[in-house]
């Protein structure tokens, strides 16, 4: 029954001959492992087709939905992480296999007559595959792909004569926009795979016409493709699949934060297999000769030599030259790639940029997975409006020229500068470290250790030394009060009273979560001390409210004051905003102030983000804080503060 | 690679080692029969080759297929609460004589990764019956057009295929397969109407929520 059906089918289609033709290709000298590379390439391409089409069913190419749909595939959909991971790592496997295949073809002389055409077809296939990886890199519309692809399209723009027009056509406009994605997607999922299938068919046809390039000497009798070589090919493909799956499961494809044209991405790098070109372009001598030289002429010349190989091989030492050339270029690529990795690994700024991108990538996933999900403006707006990630950036931009945050600039970087002898040294902070602003430690330090708490000020350029006209910490009333009472407050008998006073001060800030964490009984006792009641051991202290008479009342920014900083709702967002806007107001430090007023330097939105970050007013996070750099920085700072500069 | 016993004694007589050309023309390739080696060994190799080949093909396709079945396989996030939506209507806003009022239901609309707060998600006919609210989904149980209220006829009427219902939702002709779909509605504290908005499968005699 089945037999007659097959016979009928064969009679109508001739499929038996076709199958026979496909399977019983001669393999002279027996099946060999070294013949598997071409098959593994075909297999990875099929793998890319399968995973790619399934990803297509969930991907949405537009600037507002590309990252979001990839996030959804990766983090929400069933097996999405595996499917995307397979596609991601199989693409890289393909490039590796391509390199192996090409090198083998050259050293085995399989490019020589009569296989010239097939060699050229192979080179075209290589170009198509590189085009596929380039276009695919942009599709997630994340910071990494966005900025790396910007470099590629800028290189395209450096093409002589037609560069600018070419770039604009490819991008679908002068800048990246929705159409950049739709165009790249059409190329990645339509045009390039279509071309690949066509050229692959020709490549295989011509390959069959000339047969396998047999590696000498032959060790075994002739066999056929089926089943001996098929088994070897299949095992090799299984190996590739296993590696790809292991990477997909245990490493997973990266998804960096959503693309943001307004936020530079310092960690931008192309995919690792283009790193050699990236590094090559960074040589000063190459840069000197212009982008077109390094990115177009040199690779073009190398490709030209490669392309001419079947013809040069006819010359006397042609083949030897070609093999030597191949190894030389391979060696160069390996060296440049290693160099690029090595330099990046030892570049603190690059590592910090990567760390920050990873933080942002974690954070955006936290924000996107909230019940409020992703707004229609896209995920990038979640990050832009997130105090936890924007605060550090704003701190580094506006505050870190004087202040530090746990010793770093808010973004985990220790600031350095060149001294008179051109040695790189750690920049000395000129104002207080603000990492624990408004905390219990902060309040305690103000009460018992005011002088040291604000000691970094002594490093400031303006610090007067003995000039009474300027603010001098050593003459500060608050510093002397703090010094006077430090002993009483730190005695064990008064430990509870110190805690009570701290609690009463902390209670003024009204931060998120304070309702649960503030001890009301302690606050009550603290209020009494604020108002001048003696401490537990009977020590009389002058009341805080003698000078800071608004403590305990609501803060209102009037700009008027009596020469003492207004501490109503001290540490609250409201107070902090007013203070940052105009610290020199009479309501705060008045004439003693040296901090710039930010009312005109920072817009209201940035100020709000900064203050919300400092006061912990943001969606809860599991992203860890940047490690503290206090020990590195403030060792140097305290030393410097002890001996004020002239 | 160590199966040297299969090499026939005349192995060295195969084409000259120097010449790499094996088959320059297409018609020379199919002459050979795959009868090299013993039949038994060939069978084992064939089975292994077929097995490995099938595995590398089926595994990626199966993973992709399961991914495609995500809508069926993924655990849906359980909606919080009892599904009732607080409307901005109070009971007194409905006519006491039971005249139907068309009410646009608003709720947060979830669209894959997006959430659009407070969107119109559908509409309902609301009738006051003493201190209770009788609510119908406006979608016709026949083929999903919107059911209108005809004050002149005192009925509900669907302009698409002329389904008609009385004001209690009972069919007045044979076109609709079932009565209009009632929605759970409650008057909660303060006289505010709460509505559990649901949609139902069309063209069946059973009322099945989708």
Descriptive overview:
The complex is a heterodimer of chains A (646) and B (210). With 646 residues, chain A is an all-alpha fold. Among the domains of chain A are: 22-263, Cytochrome Bc1 Complex, Chain C; 269-346, no CATH class. Helices cover 58% and strands 2% of the residues of chain A. Chain A contains 26 helices and four strands. In chain A, helix 5 packs across helix 10 (225-250) and helix 7 runs antiparallel to helix 8 (163-171). The longest helix of chain A is centred in the N-terminal third of the chain and has 33 residues, at 178-210. Chain B is of the alpha+beta class. Chain B folds into two domains: 4-72, no CATH class; 85-196, Rieske Iron-sulfur Protein, CATH 2.102.10.10. Chain B contains two helices and nine strands; from the N terminus they run H-H-E-E-E-E-E-E-E-E-E. Chain B has helices spanning 39-68, 70-73; strands at 85-90, 101-111, 114-129, 132-137, 148-150, 155-157, 164-165, 182-188, 192-196. Chain B starts with 38 loop residues before the first helix and ends in a 14-residue tail after the last strand. The model of chain B is unreliable at 1-35 (pLDDT under 50). The chains are: A mainly alpha (646), B alpha+beta (210). Chains A and B meet through helix 2, helix 3, helix 4, helix 5 and helix 9 of A and helix 1 and strand 3 of B.
Summarize the model shown.
The complex is a heterodimer of chains A (646) and B (210). By secondary structure, chain A is mostly helical.
């Amino acid at each position: 029954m089945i037999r007659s059906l097959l016979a009928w089918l064969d009679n109508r289609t001739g499929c038996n001959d076709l199958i026979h033709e496909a399977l019983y290709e001669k393999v002279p000298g027996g099946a060999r492992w070294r013949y598997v590379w071409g098959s593994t390439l075909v297999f990875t391409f099929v793998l890319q087709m399968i995973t790619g089409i399934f990803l297509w069913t969930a991907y949405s190419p537009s600037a507002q939905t590309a990252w979001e749909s990839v996030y959804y595939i990766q983090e929400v959909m069933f097996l999405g992480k595996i499917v995307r991971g397979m596609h991601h790592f199989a693409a890289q496997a393909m490039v590796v296999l391509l390199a192996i295949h090409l090198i083998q073809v050259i050293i085995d002389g399989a490019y020589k007559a009569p296989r010239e055409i097939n060699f050229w077809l192979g080179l075209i296939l290589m170009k198509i595959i590189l085009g596929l990886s380039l276009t695919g890199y942009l599709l997630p519309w994340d910071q990494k792909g966005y900025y790396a692809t910007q470099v590629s399209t800028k290189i395209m723009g450096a093409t002589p004569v037609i560069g600018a027009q070419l770039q604009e056509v490819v991008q679908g406009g002068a800048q990246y926009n929705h159409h950049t994605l739709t165009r790249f997607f059409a190329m990645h999922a339509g045009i390039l795979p279509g071309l690949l299938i066509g050229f692959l068919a020709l490549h295989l046809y011509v390959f069959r016409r000339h047969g396998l390039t047999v590696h000498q000497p032959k060790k075994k009798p002739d066999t056929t493709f089926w089943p001996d070589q098929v088994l070897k090919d299949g095992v090799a493909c299984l190996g590739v699949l296993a590696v790809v799956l292991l990477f997909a499961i245990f490493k997973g494809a990266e998804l960096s934060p959503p693309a943001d044209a307004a936020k530079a991405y310092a960690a931008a790098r192309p995919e690792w297999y283009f790193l050699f070109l990236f590094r090559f372009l960074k040589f000063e001598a190459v840069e000197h000769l212009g982008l077109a030289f390094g990115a177009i002429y040199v690779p073009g010349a190398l490709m030209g030599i490669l392309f001419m190989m079947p013809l040069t091989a006819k010359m006397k030492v042609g083949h030897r030259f070609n093999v030597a050339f191949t190894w030389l270029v391979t060696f160069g690529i390996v060296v440049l790639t290693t160099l690029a990795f090595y330099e990046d690994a030892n570049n603190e700024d690059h590592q910090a940029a990567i760390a920050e991108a990873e933080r942002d990538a974690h954070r955006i996933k936290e924000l996107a997975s909230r019940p409020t999900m992703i707004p229609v403006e896209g995920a990038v707006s979640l990050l832009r409006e997130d105090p936890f990630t924007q605060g550090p950036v704003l701190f580094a931009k506006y505050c870190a020229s004087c202040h530090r945050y746990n010793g770093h600039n808010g973004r985990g970087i220790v600031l350095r500068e060149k001294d008179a002898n051109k040695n790189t040294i750690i920049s000395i902070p000129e104002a207080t470290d603000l990492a624990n602003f408004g905390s219990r430690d902060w309040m305690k330090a103000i009460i018992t250790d005011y002088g040291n708490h604000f000691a970094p000020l002594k490093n400031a350029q303006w610090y007067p030394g003995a000039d009474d006209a300027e603010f001098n910490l050593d003459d500060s009333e608050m510093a002397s009060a703090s010094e006077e009472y430090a002993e009483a407050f730190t005695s064990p008998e008064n430990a509870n009273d110190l805690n009570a006073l701290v609690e009463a001060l902390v209670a003024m800030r009204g931060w998120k979560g304070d309702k649960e964490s503030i001890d009301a009984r302690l606050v009550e006792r603290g209020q009494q001390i604020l108002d001048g009641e003696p401490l537990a051991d009977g020590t009389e202290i002058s009341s805080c409210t003698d000078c800071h008479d608004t403590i305990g009342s609501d803060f209102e920014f009037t700009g008027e004051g009596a020469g003492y900083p207004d501490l109503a709702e001290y540490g609250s967002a409201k107070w902090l905003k007013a203070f940052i806007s105009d610290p020199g107001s009479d309501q705060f430090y008045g004439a003693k102030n040296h901090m710039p007023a930010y009312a005109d330097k920072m817009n209201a939105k940035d100020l709000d983000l900064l203050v919300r970050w400092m006061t912990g007013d943001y969606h809860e996070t599991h992203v860890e804080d940047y490690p503290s750099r206090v020990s590195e920085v403030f060792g140097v700072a305290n030393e410097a503060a002890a001996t004020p500069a002239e | 690679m160590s199966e040297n016993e299969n090499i026939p004694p005349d192995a060295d007589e195969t084409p000259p080692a120097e010449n790499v050309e094996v088959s320059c023309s297409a018609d020379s390739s199919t002459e050979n029969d795959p009868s090299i080696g013993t039949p038994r060994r060939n069978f084992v190799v064939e089975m292994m080759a077929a097995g490995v080949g099938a595995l590398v093909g089926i595994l990626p396709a199966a993973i992709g297929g399961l991914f495609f079945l995500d809508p069926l396989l993924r655990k849906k996030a359980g909606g919080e609460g009892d599904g009732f939506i607080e409307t901005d209507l109070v009971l007194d806003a409905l006519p006491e004589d039971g005249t139907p009022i068309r009410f646009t239901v608003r709720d947060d609309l979830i669209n894959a990764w997006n959430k659009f707060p407070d969107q119109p998600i559908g509409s309902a006919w609301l009738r006051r019956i003493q201190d209770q609210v009788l609510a119908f989904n406006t979608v016709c149980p026949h083929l999903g057009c919107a059911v209108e209220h005809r004050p002149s006829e005192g009925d509900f009427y669907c302009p698409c295929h002329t389904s008609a219902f009385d004001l209690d939702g009972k069919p007045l002709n044979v076109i609709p397969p079932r009565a209009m779909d009632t929605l759970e509605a409650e008057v909660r504290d303060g006289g505010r109407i709460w509505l559990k908005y649901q949609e139902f499968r069309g063209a069946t005699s059973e009322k099945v929520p989708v």
